[in-house]
Write a structure and sequence with these properties.
By secondary structure, this protein is an all-alpha fold. It contains seven helices and no strands. It folds into two domains: 43 residues, Helix Hairpins (Orthogonal Bundle); 102 residues, yfbu gene product, domain 2, CATH 1.10.3190. The chain is 59% helix and 0% strand. The protein starts with a helix and ends with a helix.
């Protein structure tokens, strides 16, 4: 998975981290041993995700968050039945998902509220279907940033 050169770089970085953060020295030492010996089955313990988010997936998430921001700002942040249906509930709190992780990362940067549903029926594929249908309808109305109540109802239908 990692080349010899990448493992050597990681090994040296962990050596530096041990000196910079002595409180975590034993953790970094374990990580060093994992990369030094090439224990691929333990690479996940290094905190590096194997999954990636492509440019197309990132753009889709960006569009979904832009749509939901437009709905939220157009409903003046109020709690109405329509606005409540347009709350971002993520891509499935029960399953790790790269797209959810990207959205969560952006949410921290953009201070976008995420009301993550922990219910069993909040599955990533169902949420993506819902958001994609909303995006399609949003594109049909010209990706308006200021939305009327009727437009919001159309988007969440």
């Amino acid at each position: 998975m990692f080349s010899f050169a990448e493992r050597l770089i990681l090994f040296n970085q962990y050596e530096i981290l041990k000196k910079l953060d002595p409180d975590k020295s034993s953790l970094y030492g374990r990580h060093q041993e994992v990369v030094e010996r090439g224990f691929e089955n333990l690479y996940r313990e290094l905190g590096i995700s194997e999954g990636t988010v492509s440019d197309a997936e990132a753009k889709e998430i960006d569009d979904i968050l832009a749509l939901l921001r437009a709905i939220r700002s157009s409903s003046n942040g109020g709690s109405s039945g329509v606005a409540d249906e347009a709350k971002f509930v993520g891509f499935g709190g029960s399953q790790p998902h790269e797209q959810f992780a990207y959205a969560e990362f952006l949410g921290k940067i953009l201070k976008f509220p995420q009301e993550i549903s922990r219910s069993a029926d909040n599955r990533p594929e169902l949420q993506l279907e819902k958001y994609r249908a909303m995006l399609k309808r949003w594109n049909e109305i010209g990706r308006a940033r200021e939305l009327s109540t009727d437009q919001i109802e159309y988007l969440v239908a």
